[in-house]
Specification:
The complex is a heterodimer. In chain A, α1 runs parallel beside α2. Chain A has one domain: Transcription Regulator spoIIAA (2-Layer Sandwich). A six-stranded mixed beta sheet of chain A has the order 1-2-3-4-5-6, covered by helices on one side. The longest helix of chain A has 17 residues. Chain A is built from three helices and six strands; from the N terminus they run βββαβαβαβ. By secondary structure, chain B is α+β, with helices and mostly antiparallel strands. Chain B has one domain: Heat Shock Protein 90 (2-Layer Sandwich). Chain B is globular and about 50 Å long. In chain B, strands 1, 2, 3, 4, 5 and 6 form a six-stranded antiparallel beta sheet that branches. Helix content of chain B is 48%, strand content 28%. The chains are: A alpha/beta, B alpha+beta.
């Protein structure tokens, strides 16, 4: 079953497909209350990921803009991915516009703290 | 305000190569609309995407600081929070400046001043390790974000951040911040 949360002016389009272990975040992220928006989305993702064993999981990010509070949300997600990568194969595709060095740099800094997650950079 | 005074104000703004200047109640809807205007304007000027993304970043961080922390808040009919403050974006030579100003309660000044003084004097490496430390821990008490907004602004600013606190009355100071891209 695939759930798609449509994008708004301040939040990204989010795709959650637990059967295929595919998740994506696409668009901009600067909601006024980051916790109120992301907590209900992230906590079922966390429970699902923690229940997995020997699975292949793919996360796709194509974030054209996000604020500092959202950075923290994604950082926490990557920490979780590193955690569950002990038992699963975790792939992250970090997409960015080829000229957008800011988005690329954010990806590089997330990657620095990960050792077991396959982190791929995809310039669009 | 007289016609002359308003024209003088407009003249001061325009002589500082301002792209955008706002003084009034800011809401999330206004931030979205202005963000779209900034993108459009910088793209029409063929500004490099990496630069325009940073200008947008600074604008949203500063504007959301006002909506979150300005003491002058009201709620509109759609229960959207609106907070009073001021933001300007303009150019100085080949650089962009993004600055904001709002009232701040006196009892919050010392903490913010210490935080900004520390950040303003840090090297890029020190800022990066502070960023990594903050992102790994719970936000500061009273923070409605992630406590990394000022650090990120300082890291992206091409010159040291400038700020001051000017006394307004016994209850409030005026806080002003300027960053450059």
């Amino acid at each position: 079953m695939q759930t798609v949360i449509p994008a708004t002016a301040t939040t990204p389009k989010i795709t959650i497909d637990k059967s295929r272990n595919f998740f994506s975040f696409e668009g901009e992220s600067f909601p006024e209350d980051v916790k109120a928006f992301f907590d209900p989305i992230m906590s079922p993702i966390e429970s699902h990921l923690r229940s997995l064993n020997d699975s292949q999981v793919t996360f796709e990010f194509f974030l054209t803009y996000f604020n500092s509070a959202s950075t923290k949300v994604f950082f926490n997600l990557f920490t979780l991915l590193e955690d569950v990568s002990e038992f699963n194969l975790i792939n992250v595709d970090w997409k960015f516009h080829a000229e957008d060095d800011t988005a690329e740099e954010f990806g590089r800094e997330f990657q620095e703290d990960l050792s077991n997650v396959n982190f791929n950079f995809v310039a669009i | 305000m007289t016609l002359n005074e308003y024209r003088e104000l407009k003249g001061i703004i325009e002589s500082n190569d301002v792209i955008f200047c706002y003084n009034g109640y800011l809401s999330q809807d206004i931030i979205v609309a202005v963000g779209s205007m900034i993108r459009g304007k910088l793209s029409a000027d063929e500004t490099k995407m990496g630069v325009s993304q940073k200008v947008l970043y600074m604008f949203v961080e500063q504007a959301q600081n006002i909506t979150r922390y300005s003491p002058d808040q009201i709620t509109n009919d759609e229960s959207e929070r609106m907070s009073y403050g001021s933001i300007a974006i303009g150019t100085e030579g080949d650089k962009f400046y993004i600055m904001c100003s709002n009232r701040i309660e006196k009892d919050k000044v010392e903490t913010l001043r210490n935080k900004l003084e520390t950040i303003a004097n840090m090297s890029p490496e020190e800022l990066k390790s502070l960023y990594k430390e903050k992102i790994n821990t719970e936000p500061d008490e009273g923070s409605k974000g992630a406590s990394i907004g000022f650090i990120e602004m300082a890291r992206k600013s091409t010159e040291p951040i400038q700020f001051d606190f000017i006394e307004l009355d016994h209850e409030y100071d005026c806080f002003t911040l300027k960053v450059m891209i």
